[in-house]
Amino acid sequence: MATDVKPEAPLGFEEINKYDFRNAERYVFKSRKGLDAEIVHQISDMKNEPDWMRQFRLRALDIFLAKPLPTWGGEIKLDFQDIYYYIKPTDRQGHTWEEVPEEIKRTFDRLGIPEAEKRVLAGVKAQYESEVVYGSLRDELAAQGVLFTDTDTAVREYPDLVREYFATVIPPTDNKFAALNSAVWSGGSFIYVPKGVKIDFPLQAYFRINAQNMGQFERTLIIVDEGAQVHYVEGCTAPMYTTESLHSAVVEIIVKRHARCRYTTIQNWANNIYNLVTKRAVAYEGALMEWIDGNLGSRLTMKYPSVYMLEPGARGEILSIAFASAGQHQDAGAKVVHCAPDTASRIVSKSISKCGGRSSYRGLVKIERGARRCRSNVVCDALILDPQSRSDTYPYIEIEEQDVAVGHEASVSRIGEEQLFYLMSRGLTEAEASTMIVAGFIEPLVRELPMEYAVEMNKLIQLQMEGSVG
Amino acid sequence: MSDTLKIINLHVAVDDKPILRGVDLTIRRGEVHALMGPNGSGKSTLGFAIMGHPGYRVTEGRVELNGQDLLAMEPHERARAGLFMAFQRPVAIPGVKLADFLRHAASNIRRPDRKEGEELIPMREFRKELYAKMDQLRMDRDFARRYVNDGFSGGEMKRAEILQMAILRPKFAILDETDSGLDVDAVRLASQSIAEIGGAEMGILIITHHDKLLEHNQPHYTHVMLGGRIVETAGPGMARSGPELAAELHRHGYDRIRAAYPEAAADEQAMQRASGRAEAAAV
Ligand SMILES: Nc1ncnc2c1ncn2[C@@H]1O[C@H](COP(=O)(O)OP(=O)(O)OP(=O)(O)O)[C@@H](O)[C@H]1O
Ligand SMILES: [Mg+2]
Predict the structure, then answer these.
(1) Boundary residue ending a domain (A217, A232, A247)
(2) Which ligand is nearest to the Cα of residue B36, counting in written order?
(3) B29 near B203, Cβ under 8 Å?
(4) What ipTM score was computed for the predicted complex, to two decimals?
């Protein structure tokens, strides 16, 4: 195929340049299943990476192969040799719109997703042409010195910056899936916000659809320099349909002195997906890191965004919502580690289980020796919609210091007959009443979302609730 | 023919414990009925049963709205048919804003065949209407954004119930001790508002221990409940008028009633013992 592209054919060139395939050899790269050193080499070749990254990948592969699966969390039934670890963007258009399940299409319609975006979300089309909106904004950001690209590009264009921070927050040795991601990562976002620069609009909202960002093993690195501010919104609320069964991302964030970072994720995976994600931030003096994390769908999600407060006055907040329905297990939670005095953290977790779904909160609050006068507050509320469903809480607290204030509250509730009756006595059907009660239950977190995401989140809850009662 | 709510020989049990023992009551649109009676006599139970609370099981009897069998309907269908109850103890719905909730409610009740997910009354239009009603009831507009009954004071809850009635404009309303918890001024305001909203438009059943609500809503009929039965009724063409009986009970209490209806008084005692036992067992 590649040999058919004549060098002078402008269209052909554009097509190739778009995906950065620099020569014909790489262009004919054929994806195959399984994982070994050869695949890792191929990925590195394809990306035309510097050698340090190749070596990093290879080391990570060894670590992945040596590490056992976690013995806690959910049940992982995966054949690692039966997975594609790298698929060329062009190969990704493997299925047609007709092949996308009706259910997914219906959900798109209900969410009012534009036609062009639907096709990208469904994996039919590789990239959404958002350049128009995105171009002028990117210029504005660039003028302020903000770097914002996909991580592959960053490795090539900002090698020093990437190399300085890459894998410093989450080393491949952290866990089996962080190792896997380190070996085969592709895509994800790279953001650098220079000192004192405050970006006052949520970043991803304008770059909503980008096939690179939705890869299986994306790798995101965000550096917020001193006194800077950024709110990054990852993904979108539409159900993501892929034919692959494993999604394993790594997100690393460095929040320097007196900087602020908020990272918002709403993910709604198809029911066959294992969603095993490592997200961690380090916060320096007076810095604030906030994770807002919404998890819907998937077969199993294991995700515990964490904040390490390394210097005095650092703060971490983690707000999460999990919705587990039939055949789904949401093992989500949070982790805060207080390494310095006068640091503060807050964890709010809300989970909803229905139709036999299972949700677990798993959280760690750790206060290290010397981290005096720390405060940490954990609230986790579970709402169980029917007797078949399940919710568990696994709070771990490790405190090595005396002078600290740590609070933990947990509640499990069912939708009350009295609440249902009250709403029904005002003309709401039972289904409508349940949906309203569930929406109210997560409202304190939805309130934190950017407007359009809050609206979509509520629509999603409505969809999830359909047919669940009566 | 005017709209009629008819309760015929209604028997209601809670957890197999009989509470109502044959209640008959007919309310026509435009009428105000007062329902009085000692604590625990079954007044709220009557309201819940008419509204369709699943915990209140009808073991015998009928409830009809213009001949239509209400007991066969779900609570939301009864509401859409034009029934409303202002609760003695409204339930909090955390996270749900009063305005959103009421917009859903009003959309359903004004378009009874509305399905879930179908369009609501436009936000702007509804907000205007809501604010106008709130102003009338001298409710702070901030309440529209507060969560339903969540952290409301006793009086605020009762005002919110009246607000709901004003927005939903039912054919028949049961007001269960809507006056308790309100301060003197608020009772007067509530009383006026109910008269305004109701007027000739509504049939109203006012359950009360006081006479303030009745000031602006002179009852055409007053009923006395004892031991799960209506034992005495006053009204047009009877020995006494509705307001006269209400005034008597208010001044002298229920001793005369108990003496006059020993069978019901015995049932009252049996009911008290039963709930006392249940409470003791629960401790
Ligand atoms: N949900 C319930 N569970 C158990 N017992 C109940 C329930 N509802 C009512 N009862 C019992 O039924 C009887 C009547 O109660 P109801 O609330 O109808 O009285 P009431 O006339 O409204 O009294 P009050 O004037 O105190 O409001 C009482 O003995 C009460 O304990
Ligand atoms: Mg009562």
Answers:
(1) A232
(2) 1
(3) yes
(4) 0.96
